[in-house]
Each structure stands twice: as structure tokens, then as C-alpha cells.
Amino acid sequence: MGVYVLGIAGASGTPYARRVLEQMLGAGHDVKAVITDAGRKVLAVEEDLVLTGNTEADTPTLLEWANVPDFAGTFELYHHKDVAAPIASGSFAVDGMVVVPCSGGTLGRIAHGISNGLLERAADVCLKERRRLVLVPREMPLSLIHLRNMTAVTEAGAIVLPASPGFYHNPKSIDDLVDMVAGRILASLGIDSKVMKTWLGPEPQGYSEEVIQ
Ligand SMILES: Cc1cc2nc3c(=O)[nH]c(=O)nc-3n(C[C@H](O)[C@H](O)[C@H](O)COP(=O)(O)O)c2cc1C
Fold it and tell me: Which residues line ligand 1 (CB under 6 A)?
């Protein structure tokens, strides 16, 4: 099983993070999570999830939110200011990191190597160690600064995966839309999941309903 870093920054799109966390834990991976202050604010607004910043107290709250009662791997939550956490060092091996959702501010700091918090530092480590880094920005419209920052992180080796679900799979619910983005994130990290469905062409084939192994 793998070790993955889940960063949650202060952009809209926290349901994607919930689905990704659920799938990572459900598949038995070890998850190291870090949430910015703004990320906590957005979680409260969008998910009614109130975190205090005390990692010990917040851990069970986050696990309840992810709704994975039993999991074979581990879950560790670090404070954004804890730049001495293991994921701040390249010597601590991880299989990849996703920042979902990724704010314009966090994108800009990662693009410019401004690692003044653990989330940006862990992303910086992934880039320098040539490890998989997936950034999921959500903003509209995009400024030239956002676009340049996306180019910069792509040049540095990151994958920019905008939170823009398609509609060609005929979504019936918000969950379907969330799954489309979450499935792509997991696939980009090399994680098999039941939420990633393969397009087989227009009807009658449509989407594969099978679990992709
Ligand atoms: C409810 C809410 C929604 C927000 N949505 C976005 C968004 O979609 N994209 C974005 O870049 N910033 C968004 N912001 C603004 C960021 O949270 C803000 O720029 C913050 O400083 C980012 O901090 P961080 O990068 O440390 O997480 C939102 C803020 C709030 C409170």
C-alpha cells in the first residue's frame, strides 16, 4: 500500500477532498493530511465540518467526515504550521501528494517555492524529489497570474487537474459530479478506485460500471 499526502487549501471544492480521503483510506493507503487555516474555513462553510486546529481533537472528526469506519492503513493529521512534520523532509518517502481543493494563493506559493507552511513545503518536497504532485485549483475566471502559476508548476513537474467535472457521463446527482473529479485525481496518483469509470464511447456502451482494478 502507498503513502499519500492530502493537502486541503482554502478553495471551494471540499467534497472532492472528502471523496479522495475516503477512497485512499478505503483502499488501505496511509494518508498524511494537512489543512490550511482557510481550508478549515471552507470546510465549515461547505461541509459543516468544524475543525479547531488541534490535530489530536480534529483527527476523529475528519475520520467521521470521511466515513470509513475501518481501514487497514493509517491516518495522520499535521498542523499547517508544523514545518517539522515528517512530510516536510524529502527523506520521508511518499508516493504522491494532492492538494484538493487548491486555492489561487496556495497555487502561487507552490509555483514560487514560498514554503511558509507545511502544505506548501510538502508540495515543494514532492517537486524537488520528482514525486507525483497533483494540484486541483478552483477559480473562475482565471487571471493571467493564475494561468502563469499553473504553467510554472506544470513545468516543474506537477499535474494541474482543474475541478471541472464533465457532463458526458450524464450525472444524476452532485455525488456523480464529485466522483468524476475525485476519480481523475485518484487515477492521476496511480490509485485504483471504484469512482474512476472508463468511458467506452456513446450509448449503448457509455461508462463502465465496473470497479476498475
Ligand atoms: C467560502 C470560501 C470560498 C472560497 N473559494 C475560493 C476558491 O474557490 N478559490 C480560491 O482560490 N480561493 C477561494 N477562497 C479564498 C481563499 O480561501 C483565500 O484566498 C485564502 O487566503 C487562501 O488561503 P490558503 O491558500 O492558505 O488556503 C475562498 C474563501 C472562502 C471563505
Answer: 9-12, 36, 38-39, 41-42, 45, 103-106, 138-139
